């Protein structure tokens, strides 16, 4: 599991053998069963995680209506950075859609990572920049794209997840009810 994390980090920065030891000591293995919460609404996000196996869904709860806005799968990081960085309660929820194996790091240990890894702060900046860009794309998509375009984008960006995510959660991500998603899918797949 640690090898995937080290490969992911080393795709962005170089780690010395000593730094590999530091990273290995800072990240802890944790498993989540399908349905478990990585983060519950109203709780502080205490960890950032690297998904070695499994799939997480990010969503908000508006008066009982769940609105899915992102997914994290293998080789992605999982975290609500808004809560993690501010150490304030989260309005977002992160739930395992499958059994998941994750390498987690606490906020305090992440500060140790930044201090003891020569290019640690650079790595953190690159990860946050990627999160920021994805957030901008998601916001733009939410306000400017039709449900059909959002479904098309889902298929292009998450083609490998289509069989792993229920139609209910895909419909929530697209911003429609499951019945509407069925109609979109029908129109989508019988296009000339």
TrEMBL record:
Pfam families: cNMP_binding. InterPro entries: cNMP-bd_dom (IPR000595), cNMP-bd_dom_sf (IPR018490), RmlC-like_jellyroll (IPR014710). This is Crp/Fnr family transcriptional regulator. Residues 11-113 form the Cyclic nucleotide-binding domain.
């Amino acid at each position: 599991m640690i090898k995937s994390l080290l490969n992911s980090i080393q795709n962005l920065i170089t780690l010395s053998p000593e730094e590999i030891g530091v990273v290995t000591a800072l990240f802890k293995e944790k498993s989540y069963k399908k349905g478990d919460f990585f983060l519950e609404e109203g709780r502080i996000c205490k960890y950032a995680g690297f998904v070695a196996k499994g799939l997480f869904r990010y969503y908000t709860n508006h008066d009982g209506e769940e609105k899915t806005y992102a997914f994290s799968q293998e080789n992605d990081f999982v975290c609500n950075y808004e809560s993690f960085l501010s150490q304030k309660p989260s309005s977002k929820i992160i739930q395992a859609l499958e059994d998941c194996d994750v390498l987690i790091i606490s906020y305090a240990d992440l500060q140790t990572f930044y201090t003891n890894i020569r290019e640690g702060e650079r790595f953190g900046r690159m990860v946050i920049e990627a999160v920021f860009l994805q957030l901008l794309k998601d916001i733009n998509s939410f306000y400017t794209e039709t449900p059909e375009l959002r479904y098309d984008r889902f298929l292009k960006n998450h083609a490998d997840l289509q069989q792993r995510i229920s139609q209910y959660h895909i419909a929530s991500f697209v911003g429609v009810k499951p019945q509407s998603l069925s109609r979109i899918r029908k129109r989508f797949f019988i296009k000339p």
